[in-house]
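Take a protein:
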Amino acid sequence: MNRTERRLWAQARTLADIGELTALWLEGAIQSYPCYGGTPDPETAPLVPVLAALNRAGVVTIASQPGFAGFGYDGALWEQRAAVETFAGSDEAVEHLAGAASAHGLQVIAHGAAGMPRWRYRTTREAVVTRRESDDYTWFGMQLSRRDIRSSWLGWGICERSAVSALCSAWQVTIVDPEWGRADSPLWTALASFAGLEAAA
């Protein structure tokens, strides 16, 4: 992370500030994101308008992937479920987000701040989102710990303390499409609806 962008992130004071910087990173206006090396993966490009709007609507995205089924870089058969991991700053936001997801038949995993672990990830409610040759490969839906959120290396520790506190106080909400390989997943329609995009109307 260069000095100018580090200064931008260091000035983030609220969940909304982190959301705006995340949206700018997704859109390519800035090149750096805490706890992630480099720019978004190419597969994220078609999702950027929805993800950026979501970040500006009070829900900060942590990770996402589109639905996919086909042969990958290594010649193996890969399958993905469309999925997104987020921070949501209020009970109301969680209720509306979960409602939009449930209306489209999507799986919701929500972790409240009251049960946040201090030191280690909580993985008891994860959902498999990627398979390689039918073997489980990656999961979404773990609950991040306070230590990891506060870390300057693994989390958002370079931001203002108030912003880090906002993340630690937020809900961690994961939404997963239960169908494997669905490129036109209703997940993105649900998120667009939540974010108020005209395309969702």
